[in-house]
Amino acid sequence: MKTLLAINSPLIKKIATFSFLIVCLASVLSWGLIKDAYEHYSQAQNNIEQFSDFYRVLDVSNKLAEERGYANQLIFATVGSMAHAKAAFIKSQMETDEALTKVPQDILSSALLQNTLSHLIRGREEVDIYAAGPRTDPHEARKAVDMMMESTEYFHNVLFVKTESFIKMEPTAFSAILQGQALGELRNSTGKLGSYFLYYLNTGTPLSESQLEKISRAWQQIETQWWLLGIPTSYSSDTDSFRTLMLKTRHDFQNKGAALIRHLQTQSENRESYSVSVSEFTVRYQDSLNTFNDMLQMYLFNVHQYYGKVKNQALEHFVLTLIILFTIYSLAIIGILYIHFNVVKPLLKLNVRAKSMGEDDVSSPAYQEVCEIKALQSSLDKLEEHIDENRILSDELKKLTEIDALTGVLNRRGFELQREKLLATVSADTPVWLVLIDIDHFKRINDTWGHPAGDKVLASLGDTLNHVALPNWMVARIGGEEFAVMFSSDSQQDVLNSVRRLQMACRNLRVMTDNGEVIRLTASFGVAKGLPADQDRMMSDADQALYQSKKTGRDKITGIGDAESH
Predict the structure, then answer these.
(1) Between residues 188 and 18, which one has the greater pLDDT?
(2) How far apart are CA 474 and CA 432, in angstroms?
(3) Is 529 in a helix, a strand, or coil?
(4) How many other C-beta atoms are found inside a 10 Å radius of the C-beta of residue 223?
C-alpha cells in the first residue's frame, strides 16, 4: 500500500502542474498575440483616418482656388455673362463653406475657422461691391482681386503649416503625403499665376518688373510641384490611371493655360496690344484647370483604397488570431476538465480507499490498480512531451508572424518587436544605426519583366542582405521595395564600410528571369544615427536621407560622413 500512496501523491502534483502550465501558456500567448494584432489594426485605422483628414484640407484648398477663379470671372465679366458668373461664384462659395465645416477641429479650431471665414467674407464683399458698381475703376477691380487672393492665402499659410505637424503617419507614407501636398499647392499656384495678369489685361498696360518677378517665381514653384507629383511611390496613388490623368492635366494646362500666359507675357515684353480681353482670359484660363479636381479625387480614391486594404488585412489578422486563440483556450479547458474528472478524482478516491484499508492489507483490490496507475503515469509523461512540443510549435508560429514570407527577413511587425529587444541590450550612450534601403526604379522592373520577376528580385535581395549582415544585425522588409538594417556600433568608419558592403552586394546582385534574361539592380541608402531614446527622430532622419539619395541620382549613400557619392 505504501507503493500505491507513493505513486498517487506525485502523480496528482504532476497533473496539477500540467493543468496550471496549460492555463498560463494559453493566457500569455493569448494576451501577447491579441495585443499585437489589435495594435496593428488600430494603427491601420488611425492611418486611414489621418489621411482622410489630410484630404479634407486638400479639398478646402482646391475649393478656395476655384472660388478665387470664379471671383475673377465675376469681377471682369461682360454684361451678357454677368448673371452666369454671379451664379457660379455663389455656388462656389457654398461648396467652399461646406468643405470648411468638414475639416476636423484638431486641424481647424473654432478660432481658426472664424478667422478664415472673416478673411473670406471681406474678400467676397469686396467682389460683390465691385460687381454691383459701375465697374469703371481698374484700381478697385485690382483691390477686389487682391482681397480674394489674401483671403485664400491666409488658409494656405496657416493651415498647411499646421497640417505638417498634425500628420504623424508611418515614415513610408512620406512620399504619398508629399504627393498630396504637391496636388494642393499646384492648384493654388496655377490659380495665383493667372491672377497676376488681370490688372494689366484690364488696363492694357505692360507687366511691371515686380510682377514679372512674381510670375517667374510662380513658374518655378509650379515646375517643382509637377516634379514632386512625378515621384514614384509604393502606394496605390501611384497607379497607371493616376499617371495618365496627371499627364492629361499637365498637357491641358501647358497647351491652354500656360500657353496663353506665355503668349501674353511675350506681348507685354514686346509692348504689343494684348490679343485677349480680361473677361475672355478669366474664362479660358479657368477652363485649363478643370481636370485638377479630377486628379485630386482619383488621388483620394487610390490612397483610401490602399489604406482600406491594409486595414481589412489587419482586421482579418485580428479576427483570425481571436478565433485561433479561442480554439486553443477551449481545448485547454476541455483537457483540464477531462483530466480532473477522469484522472484526478479517481486517484483521490483510490487514495482514500487505500488509507481506509490499512498499509498491510496486501490482499486489497487496490493493489490490482497499481499497474493501471503506472500506465497512467507513463501516459502523463508522454503528455508532458506533447505539451513541450506544442510550446515549441507555438514559439515557431509566433516567429512566422514576424517574418516576411517573400524575402525571409523580418516584416515590419517583426522589425518593431526585435528593435525593442535590441535597444534593451545597449546602454543609453551607445549609438544605434538605421540604414534604409530602397531598390531604384523597382516599378520599371515590374513593368518590364512582370510582378513575378519583381518578387524574385525582392526575395534575392532579402537573401543577399541576410548573407551580408552580421549576427547581431536586424534585417527587415518594411514596405514594398524598402528594406531596413539596424545595429549598434561605436565606430562611424565601421558603419560606413558596412553600408558600402551592402551597396556593393546590391550592385553585384544578378537575378535570372524565367525566360533567361538577367536583371541587374542598384539601391539607394539613407543612414541615420541615434541613441535608444531617439528612435522616432532616427527613423525620420533616415527616411529624409533616403529621399535625398533618390532625389540626387540614386545608387547613393546619404546621411553618414563623406558617403554622399556614387
Answers:
(1) 188
(2) 11
(3) strand
(4) 11
Q: Give the residues across from 106 on adjacent strands.
A: none
268 with 197: CB under 8 angstroms? no
Report pLDDT for 558.
Answer: 93
CB of 18 closer than 8 Å to CB of 380: yes
Cell match 494603427: residue?
43
Residue 191 backbone zone (phi > 0: left; psi -120 to 50: alpha; other: beta): alpha
In terms of Cα–Cα distance, which of 21, 36, 134, 1 is closest to 417? 36
Query: C-alpha cell of 222?
Result: 509650379
Q: pTM for the whole thing?
A: 0.55
pLDDT tens track for 77-89: 988 899 999 999 9
What span, in angstroms and rounded, lies between the C-alpha atoms of 82 and 74? 7
Q: Which long-range contacts (CB under 8 A, 24 or more apart) does 99-104 make?
A: 99/56, 99/59, 99/60, 99/63, 100/60, 102/56, 102/59, 103/53, 103/56, 103/57, 103/60, 104/53, 104/56
Arithmetic mean of pLDDT, 370-390? 60
Contact between 196 and 145 under an 8 Å Cβ cutoff? The reply is no
* Cα Rg of the chain, angstroms: 35
